[in-house]
Amino acid sequence: MTDTELPRTPDYDAWPIDADLDAVSFTPRLVTVRWSDGRVSRYHGIWLRENAADDTTINPATRERILDLSTLPAWPEVEGAEIDDSGALCVDFAPEDRRLRFHPGWLRAHDYDNASDPEAPLVPVTTWQGGPEAGPDTLDATGLLDTDAGDDAEEAILAPALESVLGKGLVRLRNLPTEPGSLEAIARRIGPVRPTNFGQLFDVKAKPDPDSNAYTSIALPPHVDLPTREYHPGLQMLHCLENSVEGGQAVMLDGFAVAEALRDRHPEAWSTLTRVRWCYANTARTTDYVWYEPMIRLDARGELLEVRIADFLRGPLQTAFEDVEPAYEALMTLQRLLRDPAFAIRFTYAPGDLVIFDNRRLLHARDAFEGASGHRWLQGCYMERDEIRSRYRMIQRTRRQRRLTTDA
User: Which of 105, 168, 228, 370 fits as disulfide partner to 282, beta carbons 3.0 to 4.6 Å?
Assistant: First the structure.
């Protein structure tokens, strides 16, 4: 590589250069750069050393780090810094006597000095309420499984679908195949399926010997699936193969919107449900899953992370004696909110419909249906939030690569 060629980056992504490096200064432990648009960014020397893309820092075959900072002769200090002919940042490190080069697009994208929230979600989270006219974001998914559709199907169908799930927690795709088992091929357009004791795919229809209320024709209250697990699935997909019954409307609620309403209207109940650990249990004939967790969980930044609401999967409350009555008071306050029709959207599945939703955020329910009036058959599967985030990042990477090719 010559100095007229941009260096590789420590990952496989594409990083367009939206602003050029204009000037650079340094101290032994800090490099400061000014960009052509006036932004000033500071990078610690040790951060630059660890995030270099040369063969002493990463394995070029995997782009995974091989450098152990503690094996360096001393703390890496900056001896020199300049912008080379390619526009890359060049930094000389002592005591290694090593010059390392940094791609300006990558540097700009990882400018932690100016980042307002480096852990911000990929798509802004938007809570929503329901009502008689409300419904899920809906897309025509015709051609999603066509082998020659390629990037066109990804851009037209998959990208907006993932954005709806990441932002609103829910999307409905229409006009998909109705062959049994086709759900797995659809799911794998996003990522690996998570198998459970219900199988890789599970059939949601009335059965003569059910091991779940879902496999009956009775109404189901708003709930998330598998809160009985230490890490309950992040995504759920329900694919309609057949539906000719009377009743059985699907009901969806944004659990985050319900939780926010609880915080605003009933702060004591909110405080209790974010603190008290409830028992969630699924003690079937052949399995016995039990886990303890609050109904509402926040992440380290205080943002909503998940809800665990499923009345029919709660075991006996096991908590401090003085918390029992406040816990049930808070629970009943939440249950009353869940019955408020303002939070719910309702719709009827048509064959070929697929609903994808965040199982740690969205609550789903079902009206009772008359089993003798026809057939209702959904196939479902689970997946992790990680898979949808990874798939969306890959779509963004493809967009950036396409942009670089177009610009070139």
Answer: 228
Strand pairing partners for 235? Answer: 358, 383
Radius of gyration of the chain (CA): 26
How many other CB atoms sit within 10 Å of the CB of residue 166? 20
For β-strands 170-174 and 138-140, DSSP reports them as parallel
Quick check: 140 and 126 in contact, CB under 8 A?
no
Would you say the C-alpha torsion 299, 303, 309, 314 has a positive or negative sign? positive
Q: Which residues contact 53 (CB under 8 A, 6 or more apart)?
A: 7, 8, 9, 10, 101, 102, 103
Structure tokens at 1: 């590589």
Query: Across the strands, what pairs with 174?
Result: 140
- Residue 278, C-beta contacts closer than 8 angstroms, at least 6 positions apart: 292, 293, 294, 295, 308, 314, 317, 319, 327
pLDDT tens-digit map of 8-35: 999 999 999 999 999 999 999 999 999 9
Distance from C-alpha of 91 to C-alpha of 291, rounded to nearest angstrom: 51
Residue 134's contacts (CB-CB under 8 Å, 6 or more residues apart) are: 128, 345
CA 368, 164, 204: angle at the middle one, nearest 5?
Answer: 30
SS3 of residue 381 by DSSP: strand
- Does position 255 have pLDDT exceeding 80, yes or no? yes
b/e burial code for range 55-66 (CB count within 10 A of at least 16 → b): eebbeeeeeeee
